[in-house]
């Protein structure tokens, strides 16, 4: 007797699909058994998922009277109604028949197939690296967008667009082992601020004895091996919100793509886009991260618009502060959608904060047990991100607190407790004098 077994190959399937594994075999012998296995741990473990034993089945009882000397063609199928990522891997079909010459001898053969289960990405998000970050109009700054794509298998193809147009970026090498998978390389190594050039050098340039500012075409990138160029601009046309340096050419973008396996069998992909930010042309620019994946019928995308903060909305509680109250000054939002996350800095105009510090970082400023001396004090909130900054002022008005008694002794700063002590002491002395 002879036996040949083969399993029909399967194309990649998507999570949730129904899959049928088909095992075809030819033999001229009598059926003994069919066993399906799922192979795991690199082939060291075989999990039995289906068994057909002809000795205890009536489905093939008619084969007892089958005497023709010709091949018998069979097919065994196993159906997985909703495949999961955990179903990914190899499967084997083992078939056993009785030899035609003797009923005691069993002939075995097997076939195998690999089930490739794909999973579309479940989430995509775009964020800014190193935020919140300050705004500097005196120094060019690198800026990095990070696109995080999770839940996909295999790793997706990730790319960036600006205002709907694909970005041609210079690829960066993989980061070394142990380093952050998406931390941008520092592409900027020198200060492009012309205001920090010593006046003596600037004077020499004006007199023709040396030009500290190159006049050649500026570079297209800010890699370490390239020179920097600064254009001199009249002070009268420089806005407070914009830097003193200007790029004459289109920015050079640097791109890095990494992926890391997750315990559930999926892959987390991170793509970074780094360039030298120019607030004059990048403010209100629309950047999108798009993902192509064989399990998706159309690209998946997430987009952000780079916007500087404008018109902070500040609230103060309580609205009518009294001496001894705890006052909270909070930034609730802006007149526009801001990206990336701003950095908030609080200062007191003309003096230090209540705790003695020069400034406080965060969206909220808390003043514990405000004294009457803070009445009329002005507080400034500076909100800034790499695209620009804005200042907002608010004045604190402190009213008298009727729950705190006042008297002549309070005028010199004495506490109410001290006033009560003095009253008791005076009363005690009066009683002693009357007794004597």
Automatic annotation (TrEMBL):
Which keywords annotate this record? Cell membrane, Disulfide bond, Glycoprotein, GPI-anchor, Immunoglobulin domain, Lipoprotein, Membrane, Postsynaptic cell membrane, Repeat, Signal, Synapse
Q: Where in the cell is it found?
A: Postsynaptic cell membrane
Task: Say yes or no: keyword Signal present.
Answer: yes
Source domain of life: Eukaryota
What's the source species' lineage? Eukaryota, Metazoa, Chordata, Craniata, Vertebrata
Topology relative to the membrane: Lipid-anchor; GPI-anchor
What's this protein's name? Immunoglobulin superfamily member 21
Q: Quote the Pfam families the UniProt record gives.
A: V-set
One GO cellular component term noted in the UniProt record for this chain: postsynaptic membrane
Assembly, in brief, is: Interacts (Ig-like 1 domain) with NRXN2 (via Laminin G-like 1 domain) in a trans-interaction manner.
One Gene Ontology biological process: heterophilic cell-cell adhesion via plasma membrane cell adhesion molecules
Looking at the record, the residues that make up the Ig-like domain are 16-109, 312-397
């Amino acid at each position: 007797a002879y036996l040949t077994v083969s399993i029909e190959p399967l194309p990649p399937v998507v999570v949730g699909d129904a899959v049928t594994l088909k095992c075809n075999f030819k033999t001229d012998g009598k059926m003994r058994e069919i066993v399906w296995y799922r192979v795991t741990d690199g082939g060291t473990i075989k999990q039995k998922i289906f068994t057909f034993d002809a000795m205890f089945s009536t489905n093939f009882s008619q084969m007892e009277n089958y005497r023709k000397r010709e091949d018998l063609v069979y097919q065994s199928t196993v159906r997985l109604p909703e495949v999961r990522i955990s179903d990914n891997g190899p499967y084997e079909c083992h078939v056993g028949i009785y030899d035609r010459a003797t009923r005691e001898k069993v002939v075995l053969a097997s076939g195998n197939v690999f089930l490739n289960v794909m999973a579309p990405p479940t989430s995509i998000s775009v964020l800014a690296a190193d935020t919140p970050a300050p705004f500097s109009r005196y120094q060019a700054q690198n800026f990095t967008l990070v696109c995080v794509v999770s839940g996909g298998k295999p790793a997706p193809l990730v790319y960036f667009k600006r205002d709907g147009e694909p970005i041609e970026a210079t690829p960066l090498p993989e980061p070394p082992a142990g380093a952050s998978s998406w931390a941008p390389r520092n592409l900027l190594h020198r200060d492009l601020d012309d205001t920090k050039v010593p006046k003596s050098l600037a004077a020499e340039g004006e007199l023709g004895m040396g030009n500290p500012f190159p006049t050649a075409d500026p570079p297209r990138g800010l890699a370490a091996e390239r020179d920097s160029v600064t254009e001199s601009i009249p002070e009268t046309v420089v806005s407070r919100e914009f830097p003193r340096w200007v790029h004459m050419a289109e920015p050079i973008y640097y791109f890095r793509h990494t992926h890391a396996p997750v315990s559930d069998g999926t892959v987390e992909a991170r793509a970074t886009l780094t360039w030298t930010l120019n607030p004059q042309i990048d403010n209100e620019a629309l950047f999108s991260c798009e993902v192509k994946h064989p399990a998706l019928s159309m690209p998946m995308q997430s987009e952000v618009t780079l916007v500087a903060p404008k018109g902070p909305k500040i609230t103060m509680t309580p609205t009518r502060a009294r001496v001894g109250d705890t006052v909270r000054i909070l930034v609730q939002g802006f007149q526009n959608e801001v990206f990336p996350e701003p950095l908030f800095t609080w200062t007191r105009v003309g003096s230090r904060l209540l705790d003695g510090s020069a400034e406080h970082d965060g969206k909220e400023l808390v003043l514990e047990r405000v004294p009457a001396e803070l009445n009329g004090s002005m507080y400034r909130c500076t909100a800034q991100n790499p695209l620009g900054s804005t200042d907002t002022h608010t004045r604190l008005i402190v009213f008298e607190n009727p729950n705190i008694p006042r008297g002549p002794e309070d005028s010199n700063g004495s506490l109410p407790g001290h006033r009560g002590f003095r009253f008791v002491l005076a009363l005690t002395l009066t009683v002693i004098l009357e007794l004597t």
